[in-house]
Amino acid sequence: MRVGIINVTGYAGVELARILLRHPEVELVSVTGRSAAGKKLREIFPHLVDTELIVTAELDRVDVAFSALPHKDSAVECLKALEAEARVIDLSADFRLTDTAVYKAWYGVDHPAPEHLPEAVYGLVELQRERIRTARLVASPGCYPTSAILGLAPALKHELIEGQIIVDSKSGVSGAGRTLSLTTHFSEVNENTQAYGLSGHRHQPEIAQELNKLAAAGAGARGPVEVLFVPHLIPMIRGILSTCYAKLAEIPARPELQAEIRQLYRDFYAGETFVKVTDAPPQTKHVAGSNTCLVYPVVDPRTNTLVVISCIDNLVKGAAGQAVQSMNVMLGLPEATGLRQLGLYP
Ligand SMILES: NC(=O)c1ccc[n+]([C@@H]2O[C@H](COP(=O)([O-])OP(=O)(O)OC[C@H]3O[C@@H](n4cnc5c(N)ncnc54)[C@H](OP(=O)(O)O)[C@@H]3O)[C@@H](O)[C@H]2O)c1
């Protein structure tokens, strides 16, 4: 199987290259870049020590194309790849939101390819495995949404919570990408913590869309959920830790509820390679460099609140790793092929 990466020079693109160059069942044959076109990939990224790939302006013919371009430009390149009969996995936000009016409101432009939205499958493998298997176009989820949705899916599916959900997330700086900006300078980020996106972050409608799909799939009486999302930037490179809060549907919380919910989460993710329910609050260090999502649900009986802590590496499970997980499913390969690496510690 021949695979290619559109825009290898961003953090998501180069992380895809790191994973795909060691994938035993596919060959990375083509990588594109704008300013890097014509250069050797390993000259730009010396950690990719043994590849002879040259960055090109246009993608070669491939079976599977990954796009790691910014939104809007990404959709345009995805269409070209679809026309060339590749199956496409888009890491940008272009095919994640199902409503073009919502896309325009948050991204400020008309959707570049609305006719392809109906066929796009949201690439959260644990929840969409069957649809991904036959998909031609996969919209790989955003990094914050991945952590929040995996943390809350069992609770919503089983109608344990209702009303407003608060998602309080901390992210490392690589989530903001490789493009230079004042807010990601070392001296702005180091020994500092800042909330941002308080007037609205583009991942909020994505989280709300997917959580409401889950809420609607329950027995039905609970109604839609509201999502309040506040992201924070913290002084580390990789990682997202989301702490999610929601009122329990069953009030007051019985003493046994804690153990029941932990078991329900374990049953929900039983058999999953990449989502694990932990017995202690997970930390970003536990997942750095791996495709794992660690989830820890806990009941606060004083306020009848379910608190769920969810940790991922934003560049692996939040981007390149889960895109490769989708590719494995699309190609009928074992889902963990090329993704077995454990977290880096310390
Ligand atoms: N970072 C994450 O954690 C993460 C997680 C999930 C999804 N994503 C998504 O993945 C995509 C890439 O994100 P990223 O964080 O990897 O970005 P990034 O590191 O900021 O990538 C920027 C790179 O893309 C090139 N570039 C920028 N605009 C371009 C354009 N219009 N056309 C061609 N090349 C362009 C730039 O290269 P030159 O200027 O040198 O050409 C630059 O090297 C985005 O859609 C993002 O939403 C990112």
Total DSSP helices: 10
Ligands and ions found: NADP nicotinamide-adenine-dinucleotide phosphate
Cα end-to-end separation: 36 Å
Count of β-strands: 14
Domain count: 2
Q: CATH superfamily assignment of the largest domain?
A: Dihydrodipicolinate Reductase, domain 2
Radius of gyration: 20 Å
Say what the CATH topology of the largest domain is. Answer: Dihydrodipicolinate Reductase, domain 2
The helix-strand sequence is EHEHEEHEHEHEHEHEHEEHEEEH
Going by CATH, the architecture of the largest domain would be 2-Layer Sandwich
CATH class label of the largest domain:
Alpha Beta
Strand content: 15-25%
- Helix content range: 25-40%
Largest beta-sheet details = 7 strands, parallel
Structural class call reads alpha/beta
Q: What is the molecular shape?
A: globular
- Adjacency order of strands in the biggest sheet: 3-2-1-4-5-7-6
Could you tell me the mean pLDDT? 96
Low-pLDDT ranges: none
What does this molecule look like?
It is a single chain. The chain is α/β, with parallel strands linked by helices and 346 residues long. It has two domains: 118 residues, NAD(P)-binding Rossmann-like Domain (Rossmann fold); 171 residues, 2-Layer Sandwich (Dihydrodipicolinate Reductase, domain 2). Helix content is 30%, strand content 22%. The chain is built from ten helices and 14 strands. The strands form two sheets. Strands 3-2-1-4-5-7-6 form a seven-stranded parallel β-sheet, with helices on both faces. A seven-stranded mixed β-sheet has the order 9-10-8-11-14-13-12. α5 packs parallel to α10 and α6 packs parallel to α8. The longest helix has 15 residues. The model has no long low-confidence stretch (mean pLDDT 96). The site of NADP nicotinamide-adenine-dinucleotide phosphate has 30 residues, from α1, α3 and α10.
